[in-house]
Amino acid sequence: MKDHIISAIKGLWLNRWSTLMATMSIGICFFIFTALFLIIYNVEIFTKKLSTKASVVVYLKKEANSNDIASLTEDLKKLGVFSKLNYISKEDALKEMKSMIDPQLIELIGYNPLSDTIEAFVKEDSLNSVELIANKIKKLPFVEDVYYPVNIVKGINIMRITVLNFGVFILTLLSIAILFILYATVKSFYWKKTEEIEILKLLGATPSYIRLPFLMEGAIIGIGGTLFAEFCLVLIYFTLHSKNLYTFLPAISQIVFPLEVLYILPISGMFFGIISSFLALGRIKYQ
Amino acid sequence: MITLSNVYKYYESVAVLNDVSFHVEKGELLFITGPSGAGKTTLLKLIFGSEIPDEGQIKVGEFELTKIKHSMIPHLRRFATFIFQDFKLRQDLTVFDNVALPLKIIGERDIKRKVIDVLKEVSLRHKSDSIVRTLSGGEQQRVAIARAVVTNPKVILADEPTGNLDPQTSEDVFSLLKKINAQGCTVLIATHNPDFFRNSPYRVLTLKEGKIIQ
Fold first, then answer.
1. Which domain holds residue A242?
2. Which end of chain B is less enclosed by CB atoms within 10 A, N or C?
3. Are residues A40 and A112 in the same domain?
4. Is the pLDDT of residue A179 over 60?
């Protein structure tokens, strides 16, 4: 194993400019790859956070008494799509209204125009079916009307799906690009060592013995590229945090950087390196 | 040790080997001779597993070459090693590293002692740290012989091992191969130089246009 590692390092050093170029190219690809992943990841968190704020407001009919309201609350619970239900009586609603608007204006009306309401917070996984849920609630007894933030919910979903689809498309393209760069690099190293490999075959080297240094070269380039990408990402992350450059988006209180990325990325780089090197070498033929 | 039965080999429908059959005993030294294009190299390549016969059977030790699996060829090449006319050495490595290469391949631990021992046998101990490209042709061929014998193979195949060498160096190389054979190794030497086998006690196989004529 030691000989293979030395052989791989020597090989990379002999082709140092190609190695450097390949590592940088892969690093840039991995940087875009991971940055995009982080954007998708943060958008997911952001949309989930928004979804917890999305509530359905159920306006109750004037004739509904406390038993009817309790029964309706039970019916809403049975739907299993709400994380929280708040009953707000029309008296409480009026109090709250008075704290927001000049009370004299309300007294001019002469009576309480508000209805009893139930504020129902939608669970994250039911966000997509909020419109359907609202229609179901409308059919329940003692329900006057239902209000839900349809545009916000739809907007969030469209944004999430768009970012996800676009992200998956770009991630696929980048994965192919990374494989191709590594494939081409290792293939060129292989061609440069044709004579050396022929000698190894004549001396009874097994295919795995011949392949191992190349797989290591691919793995080293892959890991090198990912470390470069990580360095750039961490640098950008801390720059954003230190200068609060993203405070213009108040909904995002913090960009989430999962620490798992720090070890998953080099492992992915190694994996990509090994796979593409394996493909580049093909079948070792003796005859 | 080596048995060929009715072997045929064609290159673009031209028979390079035509119904070749012979047997080599364990520990024998056999000369294969004949003019250029007679099929000497092809014959050695078939025994080494570099080529596949179109017809017939070849058995080298326990290896049945007509049925040999691809994965078994490296093992065949440890059983039977090859000495090439053009040496096939790593020119960028030292003598020591070249000779150590087959030992590294088989995962040998005592590399240093074995390499030094074999370099002493070929009188190249003092050149151990020299880069191969700085050596003369005769020295390079001795390195190639050292590399071929360092793993103690059962068979050595030598294709024109003295083809690029002057008469005195050729004589040295031939003496070395005889010495290796005397230690019990089966040796097959393809050569068109009759001086080596004239008046020698060794068996000679003469090929002409792919056929054994003597």
1. 2-49+155-281
2. C
3. no
4. yes
Of residues A113 and B143, more confidently modeled: B143
CA distance A193 to chain B (A): 11
The answer to whether position A108 is within a domain reads: yes
Q: Using a cut of 0.90, tell me whether the model's pTM lies above it.
A: no
Which of A148, A169, A191 finishes a domain?
A148
Does the residue A190 lie in any domain? yes
Residues A113 and A165 in one domain: no
B183 touches A: beta carbon within 8 Å: no
Residues A67 and A141 in one domain: yes
Interface predicted TM-score of the whole assembly (ipTM), two decimals:
0.89
A23 inside domain? yes
What is the C-alpha to C-alpha distance for residues B158 and B44, in angstroms, rounded to an integer?
8
Instruction: Report pLDDT digits (tens) over A7-20.
Output: 788 878 888 888 89
- Contact across the interface for A203 and B147, Cβ inside 8 Å: yes
Q: Is residue A253 part of a domain?
A: yes
Give CA–CA dist B182/A74, Å, rounded. Answer: 100
Tell me the nearest-neighbour CA distance from B140 into chain A, angstroms.
15
Question: Where a domain ends, among A107, A129, A148?
Answer: A148
Cα(A268)–Cα(A138) distance, integer angstroms:
50
Q: Could you tell me how many CB contacts below 8 A there are between chain A and chain B?
A: 51
Q: Is the CB of B88 inside 8 Å of chain A's CB atoms? A: yes
Question: Which CATH number characterizes residue A140's domain?
Answer: 3.30.70.3040
Contact B49 A202 (CB under 8 A): no
Instruction: Give how far B201 is from chain A: nearest CA, Å.
Output: 30
What is the pLDDT, as a whole number, of residue A244? 62
Residues belonging to chain A with any Cβ–Cβ distance to chain B shorter than 8 Å: 3, 196, 198-207, 209, 285-287
A19 and A97 both lie in a single domain: no
Nearest Cα residue to B77 out of A207, A201, A287: A201
Query: Which residue in the set B51, B88, B105 is minimally distant from A205, CB to CB?
Result: B105
pLDDT tens-digit series, residues A230-247:
999 989 888 877 766 555
* Residue found by looking up tokens 């892969």 in the block: A26
Residue B54 sits at φ, ψ, to 5 deg, of -80, -30
The reply to whether A69 and A27 lie within a common domain is no
> Do A246 and A165 lie in a common domain?
yes
B69 touches chain A (CB under 8 A): no
What is residue A195's three-state secondary structure?
Answer: helix
